[in-house]
Specification:
The protein is an alpha/beta fold. The protein has 2 domains: 267 residues, Glycogen Phosphorylase B (Rossmann fold); 190 residues, Glycogen Phosphorylase B (Rossmann fold, 3-Layer(aba) Sandwich). Helix content is 40%, strand content 19%. The chain contains 20 helices and 18 strands. A 9-stranded mixed sheet has the order 3-4-5-2-1-6-7-11-12, with helices on both faces. Strands 15-14-13-16-17-18 form a 6-stranded parallel sheet, sandwiched between helices. Helix 4 crosses helix 5 and helix 15 packs across helix 19. The longest helix is centred in the last third of the chain and has 21 residues. The protein starts with a strand and ends with a helix. 51% of the residues are buried. Bound molecules: adenosine-5'-diphosphate (ADP). Adenosine-5'-diphosphate binds next to helix 1, strand 13, strand 14 and helix 14.
């Protein structure tokens, strides 16, 4: 089976969050299950510079205002199609914005171009390549399915995966004329959304099947509270909606072989984690003592509940724990965290920035990872935490609710607890959870057994990749039934 994936991020080439981890790991897992994935990605400088030879498979004299081509190549075990369109993607900064983090004003054009090319490849534009399924990820790729539906590949079965419904790609109606879609697409059942153009909305309408990244989030997005204005549409399409929890790349994230750790370890040698713990303490200027070291590795945003974290920082310190934070995002939240670090020297340490090696070291050295998200489609850091014996302490929402077993009395006595859950968006509940963590930490037997239980949990892609295969097969069978 041949699947064409379309995405704006793919690990290890370009990553701003969990989306990249998923699009980078899923193809490797699917390969083992008889599915070959080719992934179309934008030719950002960090992507094109990986390829010294470019095998051009498609050329555009004019694509959204400039010359473009698609070249094929392999990198890190991934089979890639790169949209080389310098006028759209050859820029300094991130995939969506400039160095200062301001979104590019022509993002609508950049990702329309990606999607248009995706749809044309789906329709057979590359000689000798015809995918059985097209799989679009998030709003940046969502219009692929609209372009397919409105003429470029109407019969090809498709999957739209929503990694986060908060990001929808909404633009003014004025861009429609430049999208190269028929006028009929600017309708309620097309790409029109509250008088403008909705990229994710258009993808949700056009997809054969919609998936999101955990069963709980799949239910949550059907409600006004989590639906972000799209719950009506998602409910209409509920028969074609599935929640498949993400896995992780268990080779990149393996405490037994991880070169980014100061010391690698296994469930049998958990004592070696103290070397990593010490390294984190040094790096963040934290006290070297026996109190629990809690960490946060996160985008610093309202979604992630970082304002709730800053509001309870005093309680964390008063309860006797230390806090290590790695993240970047909202400047006000960055400032509040840095102020906390200045106020509680030795007890709170903060690194502002994006630092992949440090994120590994923190998972490998800290005792627990705090994830107070208001909503969380899946969340990956709790899965890394499980695998690394860094006990997850999570808000009970979305994928966090689906992947962490709370240390309640029943779970503890059955020996199945892997972490702590608390009511989302509630500072008191968060503080209460931290007190539970500190109490459990004091009982070494309980704590070690939770760490080991977490490390045993299957967080690999195996089971979830099999669910995608089932889904792809069912869509192909549906299409054959219609023919
Ligand atoms: P989201 O995609 O919403 O940001 P996820 O938990 O799904 O959240 O994925 C976040 C990914 O980004 C994880 O791999 C996490 O380790 C990584 N990450 C987040 N912030 C940082 C940071 N400041 N430095 C390094 N890695 C980070």
């Amino acid at each position: 089976m041949q699947v064409l994936a379309v995405t704006s991020e793919i690990y290890p080439l370009i990553k701003t969050g969990g989306l990249a981890d998923v699009t980078g790991a899923l193809p490797l897992a699917l390969e083992g299950q008889g599915v070959h994935v080719r992934t179309l990605v934008p030719g950002y400088p960090v992507v094109t510079s990986r390829f010294s030879k470019k095998k051009i498979v498609l050329q555009y004299p004019a694509l959204q205002g400039g010359q473009a081509s698609v070249f094929a190549g392999q990198s890190s075990g991934l089979d890639l199609l790169v949209l080389d369109a310098p006028h759209l993607f050859d820029r300094q900064g991130g995939p969506y914005g400039n160095m200062a983090g301001i979104d590019w004003p022509d993002n609508w054009r950049r990702f329309a171009a990606l999607s248009q090319v995706g749809a044309e490849i789906a329709g057979g534009a590359i000689a000798g390549y015809l995918p059985d399924i097209v799989h679009a990820h998030d709003w940046q790729a969502a219009m692929t399915l609209a372009y397919m539906r409105y003429g470029r590949a109407p019969g090809v079965p498709s999957v739209m995966t929503v990694h986060n419904l908060a990001f929808q790609g909404q633009f003014g109606a004025g861009i429609f004329g430049e999208l190269d879609l028929p006028g009929s697409a600017m309708s309620l059942d097309g790409v029109e959304y509250y008088g403008g153009v909705g990229y994710l909305k258009g993808g949700l309408q056009a997809a054969s099947e919609i998936t999101t990244v955990s069963p709980t989030y799949a239910q949550e997005i059907r409600t006004p509270e989590f639906g972000m204005g799209l719950d009506g549409l998602i409910n209409i399409r509920a028969a074609d909606l599935a929640g498949i929890v993400n896995g992780i790349n268990t080779e990149v994230w393996n405490p037994e072989t991880d070169k980014l750790l100061a010391a690698s370890y296994s469930p049998r040698t958990l004592g070696k984690r103290s070397v990593n713990r010490r390294a984190v303490e040094e790096r963040l200027a934290l006290d070297h003592d026996a109190t629990p070291l809690l960490c946060v590795v996160s985008r610093l945003t309202w979604q992630k509940g970082i304002d709730i974290l800053t509001s309870i920082m005093d309680d964390i310190v008063a309860a006797g724990a230390k806090l290590a934070v790695l993240g970047s995002g909202d400047h006000a939240l960055e400032g509040a965290l840095l102020a906390g670090a200045a106020r509680f020297r030795g007890r709170v340490g903060v690194v502002i920035g994006y630092d992949e090696p440090l994120s590994h070291l923190m998972q490998g050295g800290c005792d627990a990872i705090l994830i107070p998200s208001r909503f969380e489609p899946c969340g990956l850091t709790q899965l890394y935490g499980l695998r690394y014996g860094c006990v997850p302490v999570v808000a009970r929402t979305g994928g966090l609710a689906d992947t962490v077993i709370d240390a309640n009395e029943a779970a503890l006595s059955a020996g199945v607890a892997t972490g702590f859950q608390f009511t989302a968006d509630n500072g008191d509940a968060f503080v209460h959870a931290i007190r539970r963590v500190i109490a459990a930490y004091a009982d070494k037997q309980v704590w070690t057994s939770m760490q080991k239980q977490g490390m045993k949990a299957d967080v690999s892609w195996g089971r979830s990749a099999a669910r995608y295969v089932e889904l792809y097969n069912s869509l192909i069978a549906r299409k054959q039934g219609q023919a």
